[in-house]
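INTERNAL AUDIT FORM
Audit reference: QA-55
Scope: verify that the stored structure record matches its stored sequence.
Auditor: D.O.
Record contents follow.
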Amino acid sequence: MTAAWIFDGVRTPFGKFGKALAGVRPDDLAASTLRALLDRHPDFDVASIGDVILGDANQAGEDNRDVARMAVLLAGLPVSISGSTTNRLCGSGLDAAMQASRMIETGDAGVVIAGGVESMSRAPWVLPKPSRPYPAGNETLVSTTLGWRLVNPRMPAEWTIPLGETAELLAERYGISREEQDAFALRSHRLAAAAWDDGVFDSEIVAVPGVALERDETLRPDTTPEALAELAAAFVEGGTVTAGNSSSLNDGASMLLLGAGERIDGVDADPLARITGRGIAGNEPQVFGIAPVEAANRALARAGRTWADVDLVELNEAYASQTLACLRLWPELDPEKVNTTGGAIAIGHPLGASGGRILSRAAHALASRGGGVAVVAICIGVGQGLAVVLER
């Protein structure tokens, strides 16, 4: 089959919940990022785009009605360009890229745009319809920002515990201390800050029109072990998971340009990396954080690779305990190869956009180093994991 290559990848700076990007609709956020990606390649004929696939975990507010198609129209692309929105919760953006690569490999398209968007700030409250007409009591608004809501009563209670409690469960199961989690969080902030200072992200970041945001808004380069140690447990009394060693609520978008073969007409650039393996795995919902372990193992096997071949890993940091639990289960992997420019604890985790961010980051990193093998993996609420192997 035709090989699927990543030719470019961009993202916005990630905004903090309720802050810099909170005034931007998600469809506008996706549209401006799509436009910015295409503007980097002025000689590329946009009419040759086979599809635009975007991940979006919410889709309950302004991102309803297929936000990918809305982005195509708002970005000024020809109406002939189609758009599809996919939802695999936190893995939505990576799932979109995986779908795009399959389209290319099977010959269904020569060029596909993939990525994702999320505005957790603008996620609406919803009011379910009452079960009977003219209810006499009060009705309750439900937040759609994050986590379980409107839970089916047939779901086992142990599956539907809050996400933060799942992080505590992993910390307990794998013997991950508060000190270890805080140290990992500090590493994430320091590495991300250094990457920003060194210009590592400069070629990947695109501005959001009308917003004065140049860097990821949740980055705390001045945090210290003492400051992290002072934070109270956020989810379980006496627990070890805090706001400081967890990812935050964020807004942002990411976009990637994928194509068949090693050239795209009108794109004056060599491809960054080739997708050589994909993996999907499921496990118990209450320990969803370790699902990337099996997903990555499967992706490597399909690529004909082992962990000994891997040069770098981008693993989405939902929680420090979740990331460290995965590392416990990958004893062959050198932890220093993981998230070498920081991760979601520092950068942020706008759900639908995160998969595109880590895939783009890994592709750019392989290009910078002149070659190698990368694993990109993400955990997903309700017990799933996704992974992709990149090679250059």
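Auditor finding: record pair retrieved intact. The first helix runs from residue 26 to 39.
Action required: none
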